[in-house]
C-alpha cells in the first residue's frame, strides 16, 4: 500500500502545495515530506488531520493507496 503516493495524488487534485497541506493539517513540512516519500507511516490521528485538511474521509486516502498498489 502506497499511502505516500495517495497523499500526493489527492493533494495535487486539491491544488495544494506540500507546505499548504502540512500547515492546514497542523504537521511540519518535514513530516509531510517523510509521509509522501514513505519514510514515515501516518498514525490514525495524522490520517484524520490530513483528511480534514483535504476535506475528505480518512478512508479515501486508504482507498486511493489501494488503487495505486
Structure description:
With 69 residues, the chain is mainly alpha-helical. It has a single domain, classed as 434 Repressor (Amino-terminal Domain) (Orthogonal Bundle). Helices cover 71% and strands 0% of the residues. The protein has helices at 3-13, 18-25, 29-36, 44-54, 58-68. Helix 1 (3-13) packs across helix 5 and helix 2 packs across helix 3 (29-36). The model has no long low-confidence stretch (mean pLDDT 96).
Concise synopsis of the structure shown:
The chain has 5 helices and no strands. The chain has 69 residues and is mostly helical.
Features:
about 70 residues, mainly alpha, 434 Repressor (Amino-terminal Domain), 5 helices, about 70% helix, about 0% strand, globular
Helix/strand order: HHHHH
Q: CATH first level: which class?
A: Mainly Alpha
Mean residue pLDDT = 96
Which homologous superfamily in CATH is the superfamily?
lambda repressor-like DNA-binding domains
Judging by the overall fold, what is the CATH architecture? Answer: Orthogonal Bundle
CATH topology: 434 Repressor (Amino-terminal Domain)
| Termini gap | 5 Å
Query: What portion of the residues fall into strands of 2 or more residues?
Result: under 5%
Give a quick account of the main beta sheet: strands, pairing sense, barrel closure.
none
Work out the count of structural domains. Answer: 1
Helix/strand/pairing category? mainly alpha
Tally of DSSP helical segments: 5
The total count of strands amounts to: 0
Shape call: globular
What is the share of helical residues? Answer: over 70%
Radius of gyration equals 10 Å
Q: Which residues form runs of ≥5 with pLDDT under 50?
A: none
